[in-house]
Amino acid sequence: MEFINQTYFALRGPQGAPQSAPETIARLADRLSPSTLLADRRAAVLSLKGLSRDHRADVGKFTLSGLIDVLLNDAEIDADIGKAVLETLNVLCEADDTASPHARELGFRHTDQVLKDEKVAHKLFALLADHSFYLRVSILQFLSTLLQNRRQVVQGYFLKAPVGPTSFVAVLEEKREIIRHEAIFVIQSLISQSPEIQKILAFEGAFERLFTIVTSEGGIEGGVVAHDALACIDGLLRYNQSNQSYMRNSPLPPILLSILGFPPALPHDQSPPQGFALQLWDVPQKRTNTAMAVGIVGLLARSGGGNMADPLAFAFSRCLIEIGLASNFPTSIKTQALRILPSNLSSFPFGQMMMTPYVPVPETNGEEWDRLEPASALDILVELTLHGEYNGILEGERRTKEVLELRAAALGVFQNFVQREEIAEAIVQGMASPPESAPATPLLDALTAAHTTPLRISTVTATHMACLLFSHLLRASTHAKTLARSIVPPSAFSARAGGSFFVPADVAVGGPAGDETVLGGGCIGDQPINQMSETDTLVPALCVFLLGVCYEFNREPGEITRSTIHSILTRLGVDMLVGRVIRLREDDRFKAIGPDTLVLTPPSAPSHLQAGPAAKPEVEEGEMWFDWAFVDFWKSNYYTVQKGLHADPNSLSSSPGMGETAMLVASLKDVIRNQAKEIDTLRAQLQELTAEAQKPDESEALRAEAARLAEEARAAEEKQREVEKEQEDLLVLLDELNSKRRRDKQRMREAAMEVSEDEGDDEEEEEEE
């Protein structure tokens, strides 16, 4: 009743005449003075709170400084006036995205006045120690608004506050869920893009409090609070190497694995419990929480440098691999798990680690699962890449974008694993020399699989994936390429037994070098380059590029020489070929590929060709055209190949300044070739001596000779690697010199300096084309 009377008298004018809003606000502003009674100030604040929504500009203009004084002087004494002034200030400073530009600008102006110095921010941090429910909630809501409007200013004041970190960490121990949730939300904004604040809160015990919240909320089975706590943990760790090291050296990482259901100390020879591999995923919030937890696991796995000798790094990596290859986790989370694995997985025992995959029983809606026989992680990884999730049982002949993303992620893991030459060579060796009566490897089987008519999408995609897998085996190893030439597909054995092998119809065997019939001379009409389609230009363009690569880089003597290919280029027309390559460069499917972008969404039909409004498909489909390794190679060599099409077959190189380098590279290749022959000879001698030394009547001299030859073979191999490395360094240096030369010429043109005719040839030709 007293409040009503005080408000009435404040709003009543002389002789009871009604007042306008500005007049009322001005009278209430006078009652905020410290000289008035606390009860009067409380009544004035409550009245201003009611007026602040409809009269923000006037309340801010006349009373903002008075409200700040009340906050600084009275909020600590009276929780009710503290709550009321905080709520009023929050209304004045709000600048929501949905508000009008004028309202947002007003909120920013009020925020700037509140934060003109550190007094208000420091007072708010100190008041967090108060245990009043409504006061704490109001402080956190006001801080959230200030952080949203001027985050960097608040962060700067926080770093200088005497009690800021302690107060925030203490609020995380609050048992009342509303306060705890508000505190987590404010901390997420407070630590954003501030490594210093992240470190301070970490060393104050924020990790421990946040993990306590996650476990008390039920882990990944919890609700929004568990998710926000996990998001806060992620914010403290991401881009902060110091916090990552602190976290890895704390007892908390095993808790993170336990949240996902993965035993932290699982022996290498045991599979995870079925409760981890097979879970229920009906609740969307569980999927969201799991994705956040998996992201943190990947962050810590990568921060350890991928050292598989570290038990923690191994446990993190194995958890992610088990999720991706041998679980019923949602497809999107499987993809996430495989993508965030460490970038150096060569030391992970994919070939020795046995896993137990599961597949859904058809027509059970995912409620029943069959457990398959254990298989090596490498076999499961290759099968996933080739045939998709659960061997394509659920997908059928569709190519859903989600599953293609998973297969692309598995392809990336395979590329990561075989980046060490020894591993790639061992796999190719197994394909080239399989054990007696052993079936073909899944990869070789997919590479040589016959295609029926009409084509099946599943088979075509498997062949595409097999080619990508095989290319990763060969890309970085000369020896693997040599081994690959000796691979004989199982279906070819019968052909060889008959005394012949498959030869394309347009290739004449045994023709003289330089004869136009050697490489398609008489069957030009049947090559894809000439079969141009207006609906799709990719295949002709790729054929031209392949032909250009053969012409530009084939400088070795042999049956098919540059002169041989030049006759084909002349017959087809160089200008036409260059046009084909340019069209590939402009194709959207080519331009969309990036280091992390392999799967694309098929383009929809033009609106004028659609019979009606396009219905959104139940499942989004995807398509794959190129991988980044090829696109990167294409971009690095596009100009060289394009210009090379115009070059004379007897020229050293189409690129300026490449002549001496080409000669050097050719010389190095000769050295490598000779060393390879020497190594093969030494290996053969070593095998002979080893066989002789194993006989009981042989002397120690043979064993010594075998040891000497083994040492020579190792030394020769090491020398060959050094030469190959030197060649790679020279090529990199050459590319840098060419790039610098082009930049210098561009600067000369911009400075209106004269550029010689030779210096300008490259760019002028490129512009004309």
What are the SSEs and their pairings?
Layout: H1 2-11, H2 21-30, H3 38-52, H4 56-74, H5 79-93, H6 101-114, H7 119-127, H8 133-160, H9 164-171, H10 177-190, H11 195-203, H12 206-216, H13 224-237, H14 241-248, H15 253-260, H16 274-277, H17 284-303, H18 311-325, H19 331-339, E1 354-355, E2 358-360, E3 369-371, E4 375-376, H20 377-387, H21 401-417, H22 421-432, H23 442-447, H24 457-474, H25 478-484, H26 493-497, H27 538-553, H28 562-572, H29 574-585, H30 588-591, E5 599-600, E6 623-624, H31 628-644, H32 659-693, H33 700-750, H34 757-768
Antiparallel strand pairs: 1-4, 2-3, 5-6
Helix content: 55-70%
- State the CATH topology of the domain at 524-601 and 621-654: Leucine-rich Repeat Variant
Computed over alpha carbons, the radius of gyration is 36 Å
| Count of strand segments | 6
- DSSP helical segment count: 34
Q: Quick one: biggest sheet?
A: 2 strands, antiparallel
Uncertain parts = 492-526, 757-769
Broad shape = elongated
By CATH, the architecture of the domain at 524-601 and 621-654 is named Alpha Horseshoe
Roughly what is the average pLDDT, rounded to an integer? 82
Kindly report how far apart the N and C termini lie.
87 Å
Strand content: under 5%
What does this structure look like?
The structure is a single chain. With 769 residues, the protein is mainly alpha-helical. Among the domains are: 423-486, no CATH class; 524-601 and 621-654, Leucine-rich Repeat Variant. Helices cover 62% and strands 2% of the residues. It has helices at 2-11, 21-30, 38-52, 56-74, 79-93, 101-114, 119-127, 133-160, 164-171, 177-190, 195-203, 206-216, 224-237, 241-248, 253-260, 274-277, 284-303, 311-325, 331-339, 377-387, 401-417, 421-432, 442-447, 457-474, 478-484, 493-497, 538-553, 562-572, 574-585, 588-591, 628-644, 659-693, 700-750, 757-768, and strands at residues 354-355, 358-360, 369-371, 375-376, 599-600, 623-624. Strands 1-4 form a two-stranded antiparallel ribbon. Strand 2 and strand 3 (369-371) form a beta hairpin. It starts with a helix and ends with a helix. The model is unreliable at 492-526 and 757-769 (pLDDT under 50).
